[in-house]
């Protein structure tokens, strides 16, 4: 009770002595000012803490966003690595502006020791047809052939005069460099002197390891010139195909729609160089323009016609492309009067493979 009566400096000194600081200081600063200053400091501290929390939260958001961006970049890279065959520039040719007024010419090679009746039908010699394509070339010549053996030996040329056609064709191909025309070749995994010679004349050569990809062999043989003209046929780039073998093919001129579609097949082979796996996805530039269900309507030698490019094996078929088996079956089913067939062999027992082959299109089911 007595302590309640204490006033003035005693109280202030006691409080200061206890370290509470609520007494009147010696400088005369009011206690209310000190309390206000402490409150302001507390407010400033709380503001700083809130700002620090916001900053930490923003940093966490940035880290999360950065991680998501990195994950997205990795995902895109994985997708792009799967779609690693992109196809090439198509010179502005599209399905809408390509040429559909086409001309076709059959070409063949008849061995010199084979003669036909005087009234038999003869076609343009294969060598002359290929020379004609090279004469028309302006920008690029694209060739797919499983074999390159155009240089015949002196001994072979001595008893086969036509063997010189192979050397002449090789010389024409080498001459493309002087004309400023690009030569692109896709071939099987072969050791070819001719390909090495062409490479020294600025030819680009890509090798496709079909054995690693399909355990099979490259058998395709075609040319695409300026994505406007093309050749498809049985002949390899072999002097024997120009001299002593029976070969048949077709040249198609001023037909950029089909030539562009065939160029996409070439681009697929071109992109498979040295690969030992089939891509999970194909580029849109490799998709077929026409197929069995939607063939191209065009004019061929002044006659209305339909056509599309097929391919095989199935693992080499991007979106919309019809397989060779589908095309052959369709031709058989659409026949009305007759079917003429010329092939090297058909029976599975003639296959090079040691495994037994069951034909997907057996004779009985195809022709009944």
From TrEMBL:
Belongs to the phospholipase D family. This is PLD phosphodiesterase domain-containing protein. It comes from the Eukaryota. The chain crosses the membrane at residues 62-83. Pfam families: PLDc_3 (PF13918). Keywords: Membrane, Transmembrane, Transmembrane helix. GO terms for molecular function: catalytic activity. The keyword Hydrolase does not apply. Residues 214-241 form the PLD phosphodiesterase domain. InterPro entries: Diverse_PLD-related, PLDc_3, PLipase_D/transphosphatidylase. PANTHER family: INACTIVE PHOSPHOLIPASE D5, PHOSPHOLIPASE D - RELATED.
């Amino acid at each position: 009770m007595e302590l309640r009566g204490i006033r003035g400096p005693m109280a202030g000194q006691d409080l200061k002595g206890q370290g509470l600081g609520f007494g009147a200081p010696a400088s005369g600063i009011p206690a209310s000012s000190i309390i206000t200053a402490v409150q302001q400091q507390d407010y400033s501290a709380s503001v700083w803490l809130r700002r620090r929390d916001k900053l930490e939260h923003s940093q966490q958001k940035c880290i999360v966003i950065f991680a998501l961006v990195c994950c997205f970049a990795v995902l895109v890279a994985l997708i792009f690595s799967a779609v690693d065959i992109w196809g090439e520039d198509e010179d502005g040719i599209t399905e809408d502006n390509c040429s559909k007024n086409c001309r076709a010419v059959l070409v063949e090679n008849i061995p010199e020791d084979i003669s036909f009746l005087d009234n038999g039908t003869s076609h343009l010699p294969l060598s002359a047809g290929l020379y004609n394509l090279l004469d028309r070339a302006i920008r690029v010549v694209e060739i797919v052939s499983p074999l390159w053996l155009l240089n015949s030996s002196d001994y072979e040329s001595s008893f086969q005069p036509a063997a010189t056609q192979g050397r002449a064709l090789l010389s024409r191909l080498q001459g493309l460099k002087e004309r400023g025309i690009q030569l692109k070749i896709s071939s099987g995994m072969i050791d070819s002197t001719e390909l090495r010679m062409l490479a020294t004349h600025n030819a680009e050569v890509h090798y496709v390891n079909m054995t690693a990809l399909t355990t099979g062999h490259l058998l395709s043989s075609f040319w695409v010139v300026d994505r406007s003209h093309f050749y498809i046929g049985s002949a390899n780039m072999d002097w024997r195909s120009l001299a002593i073998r029976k070969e048949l093919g077709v040249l198609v001129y001023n037909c950029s729609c089909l030539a562009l579609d065939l160029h996409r097949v070439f681009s697929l082979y071109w992109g498979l160089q040295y690969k030992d796996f089939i891509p999970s996805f194909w580029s849109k530039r490799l998709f077929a323009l026409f197929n069995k269900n939607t063939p191209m309507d065009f004019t061929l030698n002044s006659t209305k016609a339909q056509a599309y490019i097929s391919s095989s094996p199935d693992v080499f078929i991007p979106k919309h492309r019809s397989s060779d088996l589908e095309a052959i079956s369709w031709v058989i089913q659409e026949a009305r009067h007759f079917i003429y067939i010329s092939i090297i062999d058909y029976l599975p027992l003639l296959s090079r493979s040691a495994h037994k082959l069951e034909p997907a299109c057996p004779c009985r089911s195809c022709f009944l």
